[in-house]
Amino acid sequence: MKFLLDTSYLFALLDNDDSNYLMSLKFREKISREGGRLFITPFLFEEAITLVSYRLGKTPAITIARELLADEYAIIPFSPFQKQRAFDIFTSVISKNFSFCDALTLAAAEEEGVDVIVSFDADLKKIKGPWKVWG
Fold first, then answer.
1. Which of 5, 77, 115, 116 has the maximal Cβ count within 10 Å?
2. Contacting residues for 44 by C-beta, under 8 A, at least 6 apart
3. Cα torsion for 111, 1, 22, 25, to the nearest 10°?
4. What is the radius of gyration, based on Cα positions, of the chain?
């Protein structure tokens, strides 16, 4: 299976005060049992490190950056397909709270053939695709 890990999931794993912390631990165990490849996008990489740095500090941000750069995670490269597809997705969603980063996440998931997006982002759950959203 192919798992795309969203910022909300990655952050929840690190912050035991996060409302999704316990669920993130359960998902981590489930991912381990299911097996497969773990993916992030360059935009999720940047977003996760920045969010962790702002909310938890520089040291945890450096720790997660090192972990995400490890061989266990594959970074889906940005492509011309994703650029256009993300724009199409973004313009089709009426909600002002749906970010372009979310649209890029979905475009990358589509192009890579991701089976599961692991996210606590309610907006990602609303968009139908060939993937499941855990969260």
1. 5
2. 5, 6, 7, 10, 101, 105
3. -120
4. 14
Q: What is the largest CA-CA distance in the chain?
A: 39
Residues 49/40, Cβ–Cβ less than 8 Å: no
In this structure, which amino acid lies at residue 134? Answer: W
CA distance 62 to 46: 12
CA distance 45 to 104: 12
Domain 2-134 has CATH 3.40.50.1010: yes
Q: Report if pTM > 0.90.
A: yes
Domain boundaries, the chain: 2-134
42-54 exposure pattern, b = at least 16 Cβ within 10 A, e = fewer: ebbbebbbebbbe
